[in-house]
Amino acid sequence: MLISKQKPFEEIIGYLNGENKVFLVGCRGCAEGWESGGEKEILEMKKKLEENGKVITGYVLVDMLCDKALAALKLKNFKKKIDEADSLIVFTDGAGVQVVSELVKKMVHPGCNTISLGGGHAEWKGAERCMECGNCVLEYTGGLCPISRCSKHLLNGPCGGSQYGKCEVDATIPCVWHLIYDRLKEIGRLDKMEFLVAPKDWSVSLISGPPVKRF
Amino acid sequence: MKTKSNLERILEAGYFAVTAEVGPPQSADAEEVRKKAKLLSGYVDGFNVTDGQTAVVRMASWAACLIGKEYGLDPIVQMTCRDRNRIALQMDILGIAALGINNILCLTGDHPKFGNHPQAKGVFDVDSVQLIKIVKDMRDEKRFQNGESISHEPRLFIGAAENPFADPFDFRVLRLKKKVEAGADFIQTQIVYNVEKFKEWMKRVCDIGLDQKVKIIAGVSPIKSIGAAKYMKTKIPGMDVPDEVITRLQSVPKDQVPKEGIRLCVDIIRQLKEIKGVAGVHIMAIEWEETVPEIVEAAGLYPRPKF
């Protein structure tokens, strides 16, 4: 069970600067259970975004968004509506956001913060991992997670040890910041990497926050 | 002038600056630092002491900096985010300023994996860009990272590193731009052996006017042996040692290699002086500090300006 909580609406609407057409993605798995991205929440979000002048080109709920094969099948049926949209917002944990980012060549915004994995992990056994940091940064990183995949948890781009696309720590590990750069370049959003990302709030993370359950 | 830094004065006056790096000992031996400091005295405008380079435990940068200060040198404390969270970083920033140190070089730090305590937990609470902003806000806004105000702000000349030879190459200028926006006053680059690639990077830096906003000091280092050159080429992340460098060292008799390494370093300095936007050189003669005076003299950079 992955436990996620919707980001504050102001933060989500802030992500959509200049993007008017949006496609929403929810999950009938954990996110429905934790009321962060089930059908009810997606419809509520749709209404709120519309009240704020956004056009929702469509929405989809995937049974298990962290299952990449299943998500790919489901999203295929909505290709036209996704193509129409400027960007997507995904309402589930970090693993689900990373699945969609890999499947769709568009800006994918995280709609939730992942608070805890509740002892389990996502269905998708790919390279993507969510480390339940509680303050999702996938907005700035093209949907690839530097908290789980950068050896130094950097937030402002690759360190000086990134060479030939590999991490300085181990030549078999891809430099996630190199991948982030390539992806943002591909979707025309390198502006996301020019922005100064402020120090992260670790107090909401189970890694270094207090050892209590906050859900 | 933002600070009392000698390096800032030199750069602001438009002189071509010379800084050098000192590696502190893996012991409490102050004599070793004194010996190195004596060598550099009069030949450099500022001297860096590394902060646990390659994640090996060594004397603290600020402590060795203070010892060097006894010899009239202007110290540049290197501070990495590897071993300190934002609380420890800000405590050390206040501490070094209180001890009369005027320069700081903000770094992310080598990963613990490379060092002699690979089991250590890397901290990386903030990254180098964020550290620059923290120092800048402490100095100019008189604010801690949490927004609380400071009665006596640390007046530090803020440095950062950049590596034009790391990837993605296209991002390296943007990364420099981020560091300048965060508040860097000067930059010390990775060691330059590939002058052509460095020129291309500097051209892009100048194209967006960054050379007008920050002083760029190019890194250089004399090579002692062919083995060292090959090691740097293949084993050190983010280094670019072209084949010509190795061929040049191989072209002289074995006992002449160190001398040729010094000549090569001087040649590179001469080329760097001609590149638009380069404000100085940073000599990193790792465990070979005694060559610095010879290099500075041979490059026509001696004597250093006095104020």
Describe the structure.
The complex is a heterodimer of chains A (215) and B (307). Chain A is an alpha/beta fold. Chain A has a domain at 3-141 and 198-204: Rossmann fold. Helix content of chain A is 32%, strand content 18%. Chain A has helices spanning 9-15, 30-33, 39-51, 68-76, 79-84, 94-103, 146-149, 176-186, 191-194; strands at 3-6, 21-27, 55-62, 87-90, 107-110, 112-116, 166-167, 170-174. In chain A, strand 7 (166-167) and strand 8 (170-174) form a beta hairpin. Chain A is globular, with a radius of gyration of 16 Å. Chain B is an alpha/beta fold. Chain B has a single domain (6-298), classed as TIM Barrel (Alpha-Beta Barrel). Chain B is 40% helix and 15% strand. Chain B has helices spanning 6-12, 30-40, 61-69, 86-98, 128-141, 169-182, 195-207, 226-235, 243-250, 257-273, 292-298; strands spanning 17-22, 46-49, 75-80, 103-107, 157-162, 186-191, 215-220, 278-283. In chain B, helix 5 (128-141) packs parallel to helix 6. The longest helix of chain B is centred in the C-terminal third of the chain and has 17 residues, at 257-273. Chain B starts with 5 loop residues before the first helix and ends in a 9-residue tail after the last helix. Chains A and B meet through helix 8 of A and helix 5 and helix 6 of B.
Write the layout of secondary structure elements.
The complex is a heterodimer of chains A (215) and B (307).
Chain A: E1 3-6, H1 9-15, E2 21-27, H2 30-33, H3 39-51, E3 55-62, H4 68-76, H5 79-84, E4 87-90, H6 94-103, E5 107-110, E6 112-116, H7 146-149, E7 166-167, E8 170-174, H8 176-186, H9 191-194
Parallel strand pairs in A: 2-3, 2-4, 4-5
Antiparallel strand pairs in A: 1-6, 7-8
Helix pairs in contact in A: 4-6
Chain B: H1 6-12, E1 17-22, H2 30-40, E2 46-49, H3 61-69, E3 75-80, H4 86-98, E4 103-107, H5 128-141, E5 157-162, H6 169-182, E6 186-191, H7 195-207, E7 215-220, H8 226-235, H9 243-250, H10 257-273, E8 278-283, H11 292-298
Parallel strand pairs in B: 1-2, 1-8, 2-3, 3-4, 4-5, 5-6, 6-7, 7-8
Helix pairs in contact in B: 2-3, 5-6, 9-10, 10-11
